[in-house]
Amino acid sequence: MTTRIMASAVVSVMRYYLIMETTIQALSTVQLGSRASSIEHRIANRLAELRAERGWTLETLAKRTGISRATLSRLERCELSPSAAMLATLCGQYGWTLSRLMVEAEQTTPSVVSAGEQVIWQDPQTGYIRRVVSPPHPKLRGELIEVILPARASVSYDSSYLPGLEHHLWMLEGALSIEVGGTLLRLQKGDCARYVIDGPSKFECGRHHARYVIALVHP
Q: Which end of the chain is more exposed for a tag (fewer CB within 10 A), N or C?
């Protein structure tokens, strides 16, 4: 009897993870596929506008970011999809957060955004999905985002695009390892961590996908 119960439990767990992986794939295909092209074109246009507003040439921006002139040119023409690390580096130069860039590239931000209208973006390099839950505003200091990190994926940032940015990360599903400020944090479902991003950071997932919410507090 005990053996049957254990076997049933194992099957249930395996079925759960299979359903979740299928759900993530469906999310990428249905929700992202129909809107990704539009969002990426608007991000590309906004990046070009931000550079022009500062009077920077592509060569100047390349020197400031370490991203080649050719790559920057392709990004602004939407011939290349930027990775999360690239966007973070560019946002650091412009003093913007990733969420603000994505939302303002998508639309004018209202006070309330329904679930179906929240901006969803996928990192082409790692496959991680970022949903901007709350509409960021240049005069407000708080943001809320949801992230789904695929199994065995990792996202690294060489520096903080906004030094002093405070994170409150709450794990909803799976497990996650975070390297920040020389400290390694290991989180499981239900755990919550608070830390400040002032330098390099890394987010790494285990055998199963991880889903978490981050409340960001601007310095």
A: N
